[in-house]
Design goal:
- This protein is α/β, with parallel strands linked by helices.
- The protein has a single domain (7-188), classed as Aldolase class I (TIM Barrel, Alpha-Beta Barrel).
- Helix content is 26%, strand content 21%.
- The protein has six helices and eight strands; from the N terminus they run E-E-H-E-H-E-E-H-E-H-E-E-H-H.
- The protein has an eight-stranded parallel beta barrel with strand order 1-2-3-4-5-6-7-8.
- It starts with 6 loop residues before the first strand and ends with a helix.
Length: 190
């Protein structure tokens, strides 16, 4: 069964983690390239960016404004640890800023940074830290009353996608599920 939201954010660490041929809906998908270890070949990244553009998929670079500008990406993604306001110097009409947050203070900072969407984490229990607290649907919905820019992130898997119907947000973001089962999860989004 399809999950209907306006925005689907797919966070990838390598351009090989996703096959763009599986994405058939236009103007709903946003790809965030977040690679802290080793940057893919610039030429390959540029080709990937062009393919995204031809399929009307928004493409963002995480925490690297220079790379985002040189690739002519749709914008930049600012992690929660990125708290500076220098990004406002690069703000232009067609350059989008999105960010991530874990609490109210970080949400406030992302709003000051001019973020149009804020990936708010953790919605559900995550595999990498079973003892870490998570929000759940009710708490997330209370935070979404503060800002309508919040996008659900964290612990979203194939088995709990149906719970997203009860979450008050325009979209959600996936990270680990894209690496594990990209075709399966993308097919569930239609």
């Amino acid at each position: 069964m399809a999950i209907i939201k306006n925005k689907y954010f797919l966070i990838i660490e390598n351009i090989k983690h996703i096959n763009l041929k599986n994405i058939k809906i236009r103007n709903k998908f946003f790809i965030i390239y977040r690679n802290d270890k080793k940057i893919d070949n610039f030429r390959d990244l540029f080709k990937f960016r062009q393919t995204c553009k031809s399929k009307s998929i928004k493409f963002y670079i995480a925490n690297d404004i220079k790379l985002a500008l040189s690739l002519n990406s749709d914008g930049v993604y600012l992690s929660s640890f990125n708290k500076g306001l220098k990004i406002l110097n690069y703000k232009k009409s067609n350059f989008d800023i999105i960010g991530s947050a874990h609490n109210l203070k970080e949400i406030s900072n992302k709003i000051k940074q001019g973020c149009t969407s804020i990936l708010f984490s953790k919605l559900f229990l995550v595999d990498y830290d079973k003892k870490s607290p998570y929000l759940g649907v009710l708490k997330f919905n209370n935070f979404s009353k503060i800002s309508n820019k919040l996008i659900a992130l964290g612990g979203i898997k194939s088995h709990n996608l149906n719970h997203l119907r009860n979450v008050s947000c325009k979209g959600f973001a996936l990270l680990s599920e894209i690496k594990k089962k990209p075709a399966n999860i993308i097919n569930r989004l239609f």
